[in-house]
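Could someone model nicotinamide-adenine-dinucleotide with this protein?
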Amino acid sequence: MHLLVTGGAGYIGSHTCVAAHAAGHTVTVLDNLCNSSAESLARVERISGRRPRLIVGDIADRAVVRSVLDSEKFDAVIHFAGLKAVGESVAKPWEYYQNNVAGTLVLLDELRRHEVFDFVFSSSATVYGNPDPANLPLRETAPLAAVSPYGATKLWLEEVMRSMAAADPRWHFLLLRYFNPVGAHESGLIGEDPSGIPNNLMPYITQVAVGRLKELTIFGNDYPTPDGTCQRDYIHVCDLAEGHVAALAKVRELPGCTAVNLGTGNAVSVAQLVASFEKAVGRPLPHRYGPRRPGDAAACWADPSKARELFGWTAKRNADDMCRDAWNWQSRNPNGYRGA
Ligand code: NAD
Ligand code: WQD
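Reply:
Sure, complex below.
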């Protein structure tokens, strides 16, 4: 297939480029590089021997999107482009609605004009809001709720796609709801490279380990979980990338709009992830316990059986693999892609 991958220079996008190449697909990336660098695609080439064509542009820029779609014929789109920081979305909601929602509406409009109807969307477990423990593990039928402007953008876009598919049977939408992507390609050439102080747990851990940050604060140890720290469904980014390739193989067969969880089905606590990381690095990680972070759910993990049934996909890598590969990436690239 010839794939248009929006946001393909980013963390999940670059790993998906590698998986797509391995499956024989050709990739064109449309990315405005607002949270990434073209270096990630140079690294993709070092891994897979092929470099995706990069068009630096914004999905909200209709002229750019139109010229990309005029220039080549695409079989399907994977849409990663978007802003993704929950806290930032609370401070800058308009930017999130403009970038994620308005941008995606431009993209979808141009796709229908160009009759490209197979679309894989980066949704998120955030659409389940702060889940009721009675609904764990989460199936795709669990109640949906937005607990941040970021979450609202994912929920609304899912709704846009559901109604577009209901109105026009030519559309095939796969809404892939990722749980907590972590880790890096085993080569250590590509990985997560957040700008500023990381919000998410794994990049915080790796930056403490490499000496960029002093110590990790574990947010809360009084949750109603086995060790008192929050539980999440961490998924290795390469499993996630392979999940996209498996989904692409089925996108045209599945009618309308289908939501599918991409997770491992395992609940791992913050304390367990820190212990796995210490094992991977072979030394203790400086950390202390602090108060709960407002808005955090005690536990959130997936029932991934629908992905297995529909795509024949299951996650293969465990928490030790995730920590080993995250550390391999960070220790080889202490400052990420900067200075490369
Ligand atoms: P990322 O920031 O590394 O990648 C997003 C990419 O999109 C970046 O390269 C950025 O430059 C680009 N981009 C942003 N806005 C754009 C625009 N208007 N036009 C063109 N390019 C634009 O993030 P990621 O972790 O790889 O996430 C990819 C997608 O997956 C996002 O939509 C995110 O919401 C979703 N997601 C991420 C996670 C996670 O924890 N990483 C979890 C669930 C869902
Ligand atoms: C994981 C656990 C923290 C940092 C977010 C988004 C979600 C999705 C994935 C995009 C929590 C704890 C964290 C730290 C800590 N993204 N923690 N110390 O909040 O589960 O999910 O990323 O769609 O929408 O909300 O991920 O990595 O921030 O936190 O103790 O310094 O680690 O309290 O229990 P989260 P996270």
